[in-house]
Each structure stands twice: as structure tokens, then as C-alpha cells.
């Protein structure tokens, strides 16, 4: 409580904040937290099961097809001579469930026809998850 000893009248507003109730409330809260924290941290000793991180479904391998500026086609860094050889290499992948993703890396200086032939082979096989790898700006 504040005591006003000045000669001012009782109707004037005091401009000082009485912080005594605030300190009292904070001390009570501090005591409550100090009492409850040890109760929360102690627990019954339990032997928990070990974690095993095993994927439920294996993701199929990603097929990377590269086409250089000369129009030569490569599957996993192995050169393929023609479209029929590419068809034979990719046929086992087309039968997998789920189908693997095919990533095409076409040279920026190459002709679009070379990449178009690869896309044609992929369409004949029914491989629908096709993406193009580009360089970010």
C-alpha cells in the first residue's frame, strides 16, 4: 500500500505503480513450479523397445538416360547403339511394379530428335514416370 503524505487532495490520481502484489504473485508461481518440476521429471523405469527403421516398400531404382550433343544415348553411363537396343535394356524395368522413374539428361547443344527417340521408346514400353534433368539458373 502506498501512503500519500503530500499536501495534495485525496481525489488526485497516483502516478506510481504498486508492484508489491505483482512480486507476491510471481513468488507464488515460482514456488509452485519448483515443487511440480521434480514430480514431472521423475518417472518409472521402463525398458522401451528398440527402434527399427525398415522401409515398408522399396522404391524402384531410378533410370538415368543421357543424350550427348552428338545424339549418342547412354543408359547408366553405358552407350546404347540404337533404339531397339534401348528397348531391350529398358523392357525389364517396364515390368516392375511400381514402375521406376526415368530421368533424361539431354545436352543443351544436342538436337531434340535424339531426345524424342528416347521418349518414343519410353512410350512404347509404357514407362510414364519421365523427368528431365536441367541445370538451375
Summarize, please.
By secondary structure, this protein is α/β, with parallel strands linked by helices. The protein has a domain at 63-132: Nucleotidyltransferase, domain 5 (2-Layer Sandwich), CATH 3.30.420.270. It has 3 helices and 5 strands; from the N terminus they run H-E-E-E-H-E-H-E.
Structural class comes to: alpha/beta
User: Order of strands side by side in the largest beta sheet?
Assistant: 3-2-1-4-5
Helix-strand pattern = HEEEHEHE
Number of strands: 5
Q: Tell me, briefly, the overall form.
A: elongated
The count of helical stretches stands at 3
Strand fraction: 5-15%
CATH class of one domain: Alpha Beta
**CATH-derived architecture of one domain:** 2-Layer Sandwich
The Cα radius of gyration reads 37 Å
Sheet with most strands: 5 strands, mixed
Catalogue the unreliable spans.
none
How far apart are the termini? 69 Å
**What fold name goes in the CATH topology slot of one domain?**
Nucleotidyltransferase, domain 5
Helical content (DSSP H or I, runs of 4+): 25-40%
Mean pLDDT: 83
Amino acid at each position: 500500500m502506498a501512503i500519500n503524505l503530500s499536501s495534495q487532495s485525496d481525489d488526485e490520481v497516483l502516478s506510481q505503480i504498486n508492484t508489491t502484489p505483482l512480486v507476491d504473485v510471481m513468488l507464488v508461481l515460482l514456488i509452485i513450479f519448483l515443487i511440480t518440476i521434480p514430480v514431472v521429471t521423475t518417472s518409472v523405469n521402463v525398458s522401451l523397445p528398440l527402434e527399427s527403421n525398415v522401409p515398408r516398400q522399396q522404391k524402384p531404382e531410378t533410370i538415368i538416360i543421357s543424350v550427348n550433343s552428338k545424339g549418342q544415348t547412354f543408359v547408366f553411363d553405358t552407350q546404347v547403339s540404337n533404339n531397339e537396343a534401348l528397348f531391350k535394356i529398358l523392357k525389364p524395368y517396364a515390368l516392375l511394379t511400381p514402375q521406376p522413374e526415368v530421368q533424361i539428361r539431354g545436352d543443351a547443344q544436342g538436337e531434340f530428335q535424339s531426345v524424342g527417340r528416347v521418349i518414343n521408346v519410353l512410350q512404347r514400353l509404357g514407362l510414364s514416370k519421365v523427368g528431365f534433368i536441367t541445370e538451375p539458373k
